[in-house]
Structures are given as structure tokens and as C-alpha cells.
Amino acid sequence: MVNIAVLGYGTVGSGVVRVLTENSKKIDKKAGTPVRVKYVLDLRDFPGDPVQEKIVHDFSIILNDPEVKVVVEVMGGLKPAYEFTRAALEAGKSVCTSNKELVAEHGAEFLDLAREKNVNYLFEASCGGGIPVIRALNSSLTAEDIDEVSGILNGTTNYILSEMGEKGSGFDDALKEAQELGYAERNPEADVEGYDACRKIAILSSLAFGHTIKYRNIHTEGITKISHADMVFAKEAGFAVKLLASAYKVPDDKGANSYFALVAPFLVRNGHPLYNVNGVFNAVYIHGNMLGDSMFYGSGAGSLPTASAVVGDVIDAVKHLSRTLFVFWDSEELKLVDNGSAERAFFIRVPVEKLSDARIRFEAKDEILSDEIKDEAALITAVMSENEFERKFAEAGYVISRIRINK
Ligand code: HSE
Fold first, then answer.
1. Would you give the end-to-end CA distance of the chain in angstroms?
2. Across residues 158-176, what is the average pLDDT?
3. Do 317 and 375 lie in a common domain?
4. Interatomic CA distance for residues 92 and 321, integer angstroms
5. What total number of domains does the chain contain?
6. Rounded to an integer, what distance in angstroms lies between the CA atom of residue 376 and that of residue 333?
7. Residue among 153, 156, 160, 263 to mutate when testing ligand 1 (max atoms within 8 A of CB)
8. Would residue 167 show up in a list of annotated catalytic residues for this protein?
9. What is the pLDDT of residue 254?
10. From 30, 47, 252, 314, which residue has the greatest number of CB atoms within 10 Å?
11. pLDDT tens across 43-53, in order?
């Protein structure tokens, strides 16, 4: 039998206990030994909940119990999760986590420590909820030279954008629903401002490229400026608005690679694989030099999908109690190139009386009119660098909104 401890009995922690309880027979069989929760660490008590008898308020009880071989860190945030994770790994316990903030900030450091101690630091649930994309990067796509990882990595914002686009819901109502469904972060600013997706693409791209991409260096825009009018014109033109997180490399003239990363709302055309990724679903697109395209799709947030990924890691940790699984991510920093040089087309909304000027200024071909909003028009600009677009945008002075267009 292997004993584990769960740190945090919130949305994910309670899901982990439920998955372990409801699927215990299958889990024990797959782990090759019974997996039992010995402790649940939380500040609160849960009278009447079967977990109450396992509740402890002091982490040192878990740390000093040699029977606990695997610690599940699902508290979120950096403090005290950082100290607890370090202490657990140093004590020779494997750690499985859904804490993307902590993984993005300290992933390489914890992987080194886990290797040193012959244990594992596993974080499948940190990106894409229940989608097994990290395992695919670590063990299935190892023959590939990966040049792009992109996708929809935040369930809350995808839910909000889908509700706004399909049902015409207001931003605040859709956010409230996402919170009620258990998708949103405690502070939903992390979702709607793109910070959560930023941390996830930092993790995925660090795994894909093998070195550390610092999330602070990733240009990040959220969805708070997306309006009903954007949705109306986008739909009219056959696009959906999606918050995309993207990291890719481009070979430069000297044969080296330049790395780009960005989180921002994009227009995705009808027919593109990401167009139909709606609601809480996430999708991660990976391009490898031999494989070509692959896409991973599934529930991107919520208690049970996330918990299922955590428990998958627990089973792996139990099966490899004193052997570190290979993860290709070191602490050397991979420098990113400024997005100003990235080339793309933009969707802009302008007052109708500025249409002729905008058409010439932005070298726009297609224009979009709407029966619902008659005093505005939308245009799709020529492909240009972000810097050039920003210069034209500032010179024009009348552009109501702008959204990047996905290639
Ligand atoms: N708030 C996150 C999301 C939870 O909406 O995707 C899953 O990481």
C-alpha cells in the first residue's frame, strides 16, 4: 500500500479525493498497489465530510511521516506551496500538482531537485485540465523537433467568449456562470487578463523547447476589451474570437532559431480546427518537424477533469517510487524575440465615415458591415508587422478596436 497526502481541500483537492474514492479499484490495479489518502491538509475543518478524520492543519505531520510517499499539492498560489513542495521533495517524497503558477515559476528547479532525490515532480494537471498533453510532450513526442505549441489554454475565458459569441451573453454574466461551474481562479483576473494562459504556455513551451521560457517575458493581453460589437462583426465575417496562447520558433538567417510567444485574443476563421473549440474545452496544437500537426482536445478546467489528471500523475509516481521519469526542461533561459517584428493581419472596427481612409491606410481588402451596428464597419488589414500596425493605428486615431487574426 502507498499512502499519499493531499494539500488543499478546495475545488481540485476535493475532486482528487473523489476520483481516488470512486475509481479506487481501477486505480489500485493500475498502480499495482492500493493507494490510500492518509492526510488532507487544510486550514478549515469539514464536519460531516468523511474526509474530516484525515484533516490536519500542520504540514510537518505529513513531512515527518515516512509512510507518505506522494504529496498532492493542489493549494494553488506560490506561498506556502513553494516551501511545502521543496520540503516534500527534499524529504524524498514525489509531488503531483495542478499549480500552474508554481510550475511556471519554479518548474525547472523542482525537476532538478526531484532528479537529485530520485523522486518525481509531476504536473499534468497544470495545463489543459484533463487533457494528457504534458505526458504526450514528455514521452510520446520525444522524437520530434517541435517548432510550435499553440492553443486555447483557459477554460474560463473560452467559456465567456463562447457564451458572448453564441448567445449574446454579457461578459459579467458569463464570468459568473464560469465561476459557479468551478472553472475560474479564486481571483478571476488571472483568467480574464490572460495571466493563467500565459503561465500554461510558458510551461508547455519550456517542455517543448527544453529550456525555460519565463512567463514574465511573454506579451499577454486578456479578453476584457472584447465587446458585443466585436462579436457581431467577427461572426458576420465568419470568425470566432478565441484567447490564444502561442509559442513558436522561426529559423533566422544565421541558422539559429528565434523564439516568439504571445497570449492575446485572436480571430479564428471558420474551418480552422480551433474554431469549434467552445465552452470549457481547451485544445493544444503542436507542430513537429516529422509528425506535422497534432491537436489535443478535452475539458480544460473543472474539479473532476483536473483531479483526474492529478490522480493519473499519482499513479505514475506510485509506479516509479524511486526512479525519476525523464522530463526535458532545464533551467537555462530561452530568450524571446519582441513581438513587434511578428507579421500578421488585423481586424479593426472603425466609424463608417472613416472607412475610405482606413481602407487605404491599412491596405485593407475586405470590409464587413452589419445590420445591427450601422454606424461602424470592420476591416481586415493587409499582413504587416505588429510595429507597423501600431504606428498606423496611432496615426489614424479613430480605430475603435483591433484584434489579431490567426494565420
Ligand atoms: N481557471 C483555469 C481555467 C482553471 O479556466 O482554465 C484550469 O487551469
1. 51
2. 96
3. no
4. 9
5. 3
6. 45
7. 156
8. no
9. 82
10. 314
11. 999 999 999 99
